[in-house]
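Here comes an entry:

___
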Amino acid sequence: MDAITSFAADSYARARTAAAPAPAAGGVNFGKLAENFADALRGHEETARAAMTGGADPHALVEALSSSQLAVETVATVRDRVVEAYQEILRMPV
C-alpha cells in the first residue's frame, strides 16, 4: 500500500511541476508589473491618437479602449486587495 501511495505522490509531484510555471526567484516583481502596465497604456494611447488622426481603424480603437479598461480595472482590484490585506494586518493583536 505504501509503495502505491509513494508512486502516486511522486507522479503527481512530477506532473504538477511540469504543468506549473516556474516561480519567480524573488516572488512577484511589482516594478516589472507596473512597467508593463504603463507600457500597455502608452500603446493604447498611441492607438487612440492614430484613430483620431485617421491612422488607425475604429476596430483597433475599440480594442485598445477595452484592453486599457480591463488593465485599469485589474490594477484597481489588486490595489483594493492589497489595502484590505494591510488593514487586516493592522487589526491583528500584537
